[in-house]
Amino acid sequence: MRQNAMIDEWYPVGLFSQLDIKGRRTALMGEPIDVGLDQQGDAKVTSSNGRTLPVCVRYDHVWSSLGKPRKDLFPIPEADQPGRRFVEVGVVRVRCSPLRAVENFLDIAHFPFVHTDILGAEPHTEVQNYKVEIREDEDEVWATQVKFYQPQAAKSASGGITTEYMYRVPAPTCSVLYKTCPPRPGEWDVITLFVQPLAEDLCDVWPWMALFDDVTPMTDLIQFQQTIFLQDRSILENQIPRLLPLDPGMEIPTRADLTSIAYRRWLKRHSYTYGAQLVAQ
Predict the structure, then answer these.
(1) N or C: fewer beta carbons within 10 Å in the chain?
(2) Backbone angles phi, psi at 7, to 5 degrees
(3) Which residues have CB under 8 Å from 261's CB, separation 6+?
(4) pTM of this prediction?
(5) Distance between CA atoms of 30 and 9, rounded to whole angstroms?
(6) Where are the alpha helices (DSSP H) in the chain?
(7) Could you list the mean pLDDT of each consecutive 10-residue stretch along the chain, which spans 281 residues?
C-alpha cells in the first residue's frame, strides 16, 4: 500500500450529524476504522488495532488521519460567513482513484456532454482562456477567470447565464469551487468536494456547500448536487487506467486541461501518489 506523504493529511470520514455512540465501520487508505461518538458526545476515530486517531470536526464533517498531520485542516473562510446555508449533501461511493475524483471535479470541458442542459449545453462547448497557478505561500493549486455558459448554474438560477468559476485545491483529495451566486451578484457560492480514500481505486465522495439561497428547499439543494455527481460517477468508473497517471506522457492534455496539469504536477512534487499511476503499464 503506497501511503507515502499522504498518510499525514486530513481526510473526511463521515458527517458529524450522523454519528452515534455505536459508531460505524469504514476505511481509510486500506485500513478499517471506526467512527463514532465518545461518552462526552465528541467525535472519535479508532483504527482496526484500537489506536485512537487524530480527529477534528469542521464543515459539518469529521476528519481524521492515519498519520500525524503537520498542520490544521485548510480554512474555508466562507464557512464562517453569516447568512450562508450549509448543505450536507451526503456521500457517494465511486469505484475510482480518489485523485481521479478530484481531477474530474476540476474539469469544465465535460459540462455540455455529461451535465447536458444543466451545467452546459451544445453548441456552447468552447473552454475560454483562464489562469492557473500553484500559489506557493498557501501551497495550493488555483484556477481563476474560468467562464462557462450554463443553462442552470445552480438550483436558485432561472435561465442560462455565463458563470464565473474559481477552483482551489488545498489538499490532495479535496477541492473547493467558487462560482457565480445567482441571487446575490458579487458573492460566490461555495461547493466543495471532500474525498475519503477507501483504497487506491475506491473512494467515498462527500460534497458540501455553503450557499446564499434562502428560498430553495434543502431537499432540492441536496438532490440537485447529487444528480450532478451521479452523472459524474458513470464517467469516473469507466476511466482507464483507474489510477491517475502522473507521467505527463501517459495522457495527452488539451488547452482545457491546464488545471489538471497543475494538479498532477503539484501531486508529484509532494509525493502525493496514493491512487496515482507513476509509469506507463
Answers:
(1) C
(2) -65, -25
(3) 132, 248, 253
(4) 0.88
(5) 15
(6) 98-106, 111-114, 218-236, 258-269
(7) 79 97 96 97 96 98 97 96 94 94 80 45 59 96 83 52 86 94 86 96 96 89 82 81 80 65 94 87 52
